[in-house]
Amino acid sequence: MINIPKGTKDALPSEIYKWHAIEDTAKAVSDRYGFREIRTPVFEHTELFSRGVGDTTDVVTKEMYTFLDKGGRSVTLRPEGTAGVARAFIENGLAGGAMPFKVYYLISAFRYERPQAGRLREFHQFGAELYGAEGPSADAEAIAFADRFLREVGVGKAVRLHINSIGCPICRAEYQTALKEFFRPHLDEMCPDCRSRFDKNPMRMLDCKEEGCKKFTSHAPRMLDYLCEDCRTHFEGVKALLTRAGISFEVDPSIVRGLDYYSRTVFEFTSDALGAQSTVLGGGRYDTLLSQLGAKPTPAVGFAAGIERLILLLDALAVPVQEKHVDCYLLGMDPSSREKAFLLAEELRSGGLSCETDLMDRSVKAQFKYADKLGARFVAVLGEQELQEGCAEVKDMQNSTSERVRFDGLAQYIKGRN
Fold first, then answer.
1. 89, 300 in Cβ contact below 8 A?
2. CB contact at 8 A, 142 and 303
3. By Cβ atoms counted within 10 A, which residue in 215, 313, 350, 359 is the most buried?
4. CATH number of the domain enclosing 342
5. What is the C-alpha separation between 145 and 256, in angstroms, rounded?
């Protein structure tokens, strides 16, 4: 027996309707906000992520699936979506098109970490990226987009929006100095990861999950107190727009996000219903990423949501998700009526209806049981008499009523009753 790899999960037909509901909502809301779909490779050159995501992040130092291909080149399964979109934007010369450049994606991504509920080694994301707009209105639109998506998925009342500003490279330099002065006396009591981050990027220490480190990080200086005038004005602009749009939020100085490319606005939507893995959607501004990858500096903002976590949240909240069922099951009582049922099913499918018929030579009783398991709204029964009369005995499975319907009017009858 070959088992599924650790940290991966099958999306079975019995639950795939939840995935479809989330994906369909993502596509519909993206369309309303003017975001078009982009698809990038599932693997990229390793340097893309080490340069873009950041070599002080856990993603790059601990979690990437990196290997040499047959040509001896180092490639990595994508651990997130933003870097690949940035590479595509640069490589395809998309900066020369209409701006802002707005795209969304539905992807699988890979991180080698300890599997647990809501955190898998292969996971799936809905993400959106907006390039070219540097004002606070772009940040506010990304957050409003994310907020509307979560509300239309059905979890809006169970999530809270947290926002913060982590400044720009100019004001962050002073903040990094302040962090080092604060942490230096406590380094011996902190974890090895924090000690290694101290010189490279002390802000990464704020994201540490070790309890022994949290007692120090919880009292560390706040980036908000070190913002330069431009960053402060930008953040105030974002807050003002969100307030006027009626989007509730909480300023949370502890948010730094786990990837190095972020600057200025960062945000997270969290829910208490998910336990330890409380973040449902996260994102922020990343104005320096394009230049880090060798392109012309281009302002950008985006977000990503974990689909598995959204499904966990839907289940935890018992949010009803509409499952698609078969419109009509065509039941044949003998070989001749089964053949007619097969042909009628094809006609109904051509008319846009979902139909099934017997492929297993089941008895009439077994066919009714099967139709019930499929959730079929109608069962059209065909026997010798029905073939002679050119009609079917159509049973409404919701109220147990039945009616004789001519074959040529069957599609119209079902559409009229659905």
1. no
2. yes
3. 313
4. 3.40.50.800
5. 21
What is the per-residue DSSP string for 130-150? EES--SHHHHHHHHHHHHHHH
pTM for the predicted model, two decimal places: 0.90
Output DSSP code: residue 328.
E
Segments forming the whole domain that contains residue 352: 328-417
Q: Which tokens in the block code for residue 413?
A: 């009858």
What SS3 state is found at 153? helix
Q: List the beta bridge partners of residue 332.
A: 382
Q: Classify residue 180: in a domain, yes or no.
A: no
Token pair, residue 405, equals 């319907």
Ranges assigned E (strand) in 30-69: 36-37, 43-45, 66-68
Q: What is the DSSP string of 250-311?
A: EE-TT---SSTT-EEEEEEEE-GGGTT--EEEEEEE-TTHHHHTTS----EEEEEEEHHHHH
- 126-160, pLDDT tens digit by residue? 999 999 999 999 999 999 999 999 999 999 999 99
Residue showing tokens 């209806």:
353
